[in-house]
From TrEMBL:
Signal peptide: none
Domain 3-hydroxyisobutyrate dehydrogenase-like NAD-binding, first and last residues per copy: 164-246
Protein name: NAD(P)-dependent oxidoreductase
Keywords from the named record: NAD, Oxidoreductase
Protein origin, superkingdom: Bacteria
Provenance organism: Gordonia hankookensis
């Protein structure tokens, strides 16, 4: 298959590189020319627009930042869809609102292109080693076509259901992570108030039943959220807000986790 990739940042870059190194035929485009320099001597084809990526690809992976970025590069005047042929697939690796994927799918349908949503978790290091988690939503046949590509940079790949289900799952994951940040920092703070060495407390918990990824991040930052606030506070705030909007009146099922997530966001706001 011919693969296109747009969004060559800290996570998308290693993903694209693994596809190239696997010997696939790859077309790349970037808004910032400097992001393409590292691929100049690879086998990748560097093109001048998203439309050219679409024309050169059977599957185009988008790993851009926000909802509007996805729509701009896919449906804009010189977007992927203006060059893509009937039967193509656009994969949304970005974390966005499920409705954004549905809007894109509605537009893509007019030119015979389908959409798969496949947000990822794990960061650049996991992408480099092929250990990303990919949460997939879409039709069975489309997901089956994409699976050989996903498996180049991801393990596991989990198909959740119809289009949008991958995004909803990713947002739920990020909601719980944000909530866990609040409980982790409060527990370490309480331990300090009770006279327990915070570094030793974190060491114990990371080997016990209360361990979590969030605790590890808090412990590595000295028991505070300032480092997380600096690097991920804005994204976590966006994702919690998106999940609240999706949940609507059903938020009563998540009152505790939403309250904890907002406590973490509030603390990050005061610490950032």
């Amino acid at each position: 298959m011919r693969i296109g990739f747009i969004g060559l940042g800290s996570q998308g870059g290693p993903m694209a590189r693994r596809i190239i190194d696997a010997g696939e035929e790859v077309a790349l485009w970037g808004r910032r020319p400097e992001t393409l320099v590292r691929y100049a001597e690879t086998g990748a084809k560097i093109v001048g627009s998203p439309a050219e990526v679409g024309a050169a690809s059977d599957i185009v992976c988008l790993c851009v930042v926000a909802d509007q970025d996805v729509l701009d590069v896919a449906t804009g005047p010189d977007g992927v869809l203006s060059g893509m042929s009937n039967g193509g697939i656009i994969v949304v690796h970005s974390t966005v609102h499920p409705d954004t994927c549905q809007r894109l799918a509605d537009t893509a349908r007019d030119v015979g292109v389908t959409v798969v949503d496949a947000p990822v978790s794990g960061g650049g290091r996991a992408a480099e080693t092929g250990d990303l988690l990919v949460m997939v939503g879409g039709a069975d046949d489309d997901v089956a076509r994409c699976l050989p590509i996903f498996e180049i940079y991801a393990n596991p790949v989990v198909h959740l259901g119809d289009l949008g289900s991958g995004q909803t799952t990713k947002l739920l994951n990020n909601l719980l992570f944000t909530a866990n940040l609040a409980t982790a920092v409060d527990t370490i703070g309480l331990g300090d108030a009770l006279g327990v060495d915070t570094a030793r407390l974190a060491e114990v918990i990371t080997h016990g039943t209360a361990n979590s990824f969030a605790l590890g991040r808090v412990a590595s930052a000295g028991g505070t959220l300032d480092r997380i606030a600096m690097h991920a506070g804005g994204l976590l705030r966006k994702d919690v807000g998106l999940l609240e909007g999706i949940a609507g009146e059903r938020r009563s099922h998540g009152e505790a986790v939403l309250a904890a997530a907002h406590a973490a966001l509030q603390r990050m706001g005061s610490e950032s």
